[in-house]
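Milestone 3.1: sequence recovery, worked example.
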């Protein structure tokens, strides 16, 4: 009996610790709801500033839900109908990254908070905590998917087009609805990516024992890339507020800040590295962008978007190169300063190159835009009257990645040299040894 007592006590202690674990179902629900509130508030305010509150048929809640669904990678499809002899076609592929960022920061904070002040956590514990959040997350996506659907009737005016469509009963309608199964898949992948990045970028988040050997090389680089991207967002907020105050159009500027600010500033980040994008803008629609970008892209055919083409419109865009150099070098210095002192400058260069390349790849994959809408009657294409439009913006991926490798190697090496002059982790131990 005495030999069985210690195991029983151990089991009881583990059960008691499990009951007291600060990451149960209630904490998971709070984390998911906090993310929902953050995204809904940002999306709602952005859409309100853009004038979506005046949409007919009480569509505003559905539009907010659709924007939140798109922000987490969900699939929201556009549908069109213009009667028996007319047809519409529409498509939309864009991530409102301001909403995505708000939700990601909120749920990452909720995920990491119960794990702080700990050095190690076993895989089973982390998997269970993630699964609790994922369960509520899937329920949230189902509810948003059911809410995010609506249809609108488009007014075509009083001209000949309006007379034809009215007499033939072919008033164009466009709507949107969520592909719930696909949304669940991509929404779960989005959540997994956010939680993994949160663990990688946080110094205090515990890791399973088998992964501890990677934290010295991965975590400083991941944190530096997070700071780099958030620095661009913060700089964009300051510039946007200054523009709103000094140049008017405050509502439109606020809408851009709340819906697509990272889309713009992270695009500027890649352009500052020397990357190029291809695209065009046609029709009454356009990107929420500075006028210089619209001037370059508004062409009959796809055109290249780069520092050179932008400088032909406004020479001040060369400041993007200066800003990028300063911020990337600062991120490299931060990475080296948070790394152990025994690391060499060439190791910092490799780590920075890998981290910056992965960051640029992620930006290129999520910052692209594709949107179109058109109306045709009796097989004839665009009926005119501003009833069709096209917006496209795609990166030249391989060039961007090659440039990211080059920038990473140079900035990482310089950052490692500069960081030698500051006190870093492991320096006292190394001196004592």
């Amino acid at each position: 009996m005495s030999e069985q007592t210690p195991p029983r006590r151990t089991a009881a202690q583990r059960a008691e610790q499990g009951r007291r674990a600060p990451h149960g179902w209630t904490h998971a629900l709070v984390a998911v709801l906090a993310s929902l509130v953050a995204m809904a508030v940002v999306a709602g305010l952005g859409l309100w500033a853009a004038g979506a509150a005046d949409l007919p048929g009480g569509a505003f809640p559905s539009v907010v839900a659709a924007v939140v669904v798109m922000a987490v990678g969900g699939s929201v499809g556009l549908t069109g109908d213009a009667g028996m002899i007319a047809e519409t076609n529409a498509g939309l592929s864009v991530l409102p990254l301001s909403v995505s960022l708000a939700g990601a920061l909120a749920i990452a904070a909720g995920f990491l908070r119960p794990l702080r002040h700990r050095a190690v956590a076993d895989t089973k514990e982390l998997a269970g905590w993630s699964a609790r959040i994922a369960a509520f997350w899937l329920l949230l996506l189902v509810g948003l998917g059911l809410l995010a659907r609506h249809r609108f009737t488009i007014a075509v005016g009083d001209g000949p087009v309006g007379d034809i469509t009215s007499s033939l009963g072919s008033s164009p309608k466009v709507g949107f609805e969520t592909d719930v199964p696909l949304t669940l898949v991509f929404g779960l992948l989005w959540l997994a990516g956010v939680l993994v990045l949160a663990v990688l970028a946080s110094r205090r988040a515990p890791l399973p024992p088998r992964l501890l050997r990677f934290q010295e090389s991965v975590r400083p680089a991941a944190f530096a890339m997070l700071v780099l991207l958030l620095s661009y967002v913060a700089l964009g907020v300051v510039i946007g507020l200054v523009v709103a105050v000094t140049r008017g159009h405050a509502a439109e500027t606020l809408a851009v800040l709340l819906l697509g600010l990272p889309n713009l500033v992270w695009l500027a980040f890649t352009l500052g590295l020397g990357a190029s994008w291809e695209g065009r803008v046609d029709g009454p629609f356009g990107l929420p962008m500075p006028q210089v970008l619209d001037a370059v892209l508004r062409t009959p055919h796809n055109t290249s978007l780069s520092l050179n083409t932008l400088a032909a419109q406004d020479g001040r865009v060369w400041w993007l190169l200066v800003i990028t150099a300063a911020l990337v070098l600062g991120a490299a210095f931060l990475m080296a300063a948070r790394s152990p002192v025994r690391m060499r400058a060439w190791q910092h260069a490799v780590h920075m190159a890998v981290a910056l390349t992965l960051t640029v790849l992620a930006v290129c994959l999520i910052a692209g835009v594709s949107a179109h809408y058109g109306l045709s009657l009796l097989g004839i294409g665009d009926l005119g009257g501003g009833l069709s439009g096209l917006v496209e913006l795609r990166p030249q991926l391989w060039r961007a990645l090659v440039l990211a490798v080059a920038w990473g190697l140079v900035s990482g090496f310089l950052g490692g040299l500069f960081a030698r002059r500051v006190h870093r982790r492991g320096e006292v131990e190394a001196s004592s040894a």
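The CA atoms of residues 80 and 174 lie 4 Å apart. The chain has 15 helices and eight strands.
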